[in-house]
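Hey, quick one: can you model this chain's 3D structure?
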Amino acid sequence: MGMRRPFRIAAWLMAASLPCMSPALADTFDFPAGFHTQEIASNGTTLHVRIGGTGPAVVLIHGYGDTGDMWAPLAAELMRDHTVIAPDLRGMGLSAVAADGFTKKNQAADIAGVLDALHIERADVVGHDIGNMVAFAFAQSHQDRTTRLVMMDAPVPGIGPWDEILKNPLLWHFRFGGPDMERLVAGRERIYLDRFWNEFSAKPEHFPESSRRHYAALYAQAGRMHAGFQQFAAFDQDAIDNRASSALGRLQMPVLAIGGDHSFGSTMAFVMRFAADDVHEVVIADSGHWLMEEQPRATIAAIRAFLNADNALAQLRLTPAEVETHARSGAGAGTSGLSGIQTTVLSGDPNMPGPYAIEIRVPAHMQIAAHRHRDNRTALVVSGEWHFGYGPRADEAATRTLGPGGFYTEPAGQPHFAFTGDQATVVYITGQGPTDTTYVAPDDAPKRK
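Sure thing. Here's the predicted structure for all 449 residues.
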């Protein structure tokens, strides 16, 4: 499903990253003790479902080239405070063989039936690849049952730049299917699947051999490749269904859009902003399409932070003296990045989804060129004089001088700039991470050492 760097549509992508993490978690398919499997009849078929943990429900929906087994490392993390539900999609993995019903709208009804059988009213929903499309259809059809939505590295039929994405030569498999194609692939499932695992990885060796053998054996079972081909054959109807449902209203729940930096990248968030009002973006460094296999630790950290976002703002009271005891760093995430600026994180983490608060200390006689941030931010001047203005070019004549107690906003995507005079200035800034900084004129950006 992913697209490697040479074929990305450059105008849609922005550079972003999280720390590179080891892919070592991806070597096992064993769900933790306490999980059980259940065959659940739903919507005219039967799904194989892994269930474990306690707390609010989260549904994990796999894609093509994987089964629900892909979620074992994430399930181990989430089960501490969530009821985790990881089905195999219709006709795939160990679910019942199915010949039809592969529109994503219909498979969303499969998921709804599983939740009904488990007496679960509402859930967070996480999807990857084809699972993305089912998760989106579920959220559209069941907004009242979807608390949060995580979309991982795959387009959504009919949404945003779908017609342009279809032109990508790497995605020829979208139209590959039918009885003759099934005969060609029969007995050669590993060869066919290796193409996906290799071409859509940043580093093919990060999709482990143990995983390749495991999934190839499952897809070689009777009826499974047929189900896989039918997932793609349904895309035309999926596009019709998604356009119709989106015309009735945009998604209102929080949405986390995750892309691999060697694959869909920030295009995942770009796509979702065509259909949802509250979209948070994370791009995983050194990863292609197979996020859970290539960079499981970074991917799990992003999902965990997002699912916990409502609880991320802990009770916290700090006196000025206590603020002084916090560690200071250089110009960190969400600052101009200029040398000499000091940053103190007061609450949250500006690199991760969720609310954050930072203090910045800016030396006297500093000019900060026009730049923007991806999130909406508010700010309060604590001390000094802050000469602040809006616009694509830094112009001191266009600033307003704000002293202690002065307040201002930094609307998402709107360029702004600032100057300090003879006094150093301290400013408190709050926002909704992950945040970033993009200069209007790239030459104004600080040079990285």
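One thing worth noting: The mean pLDDT is 87.
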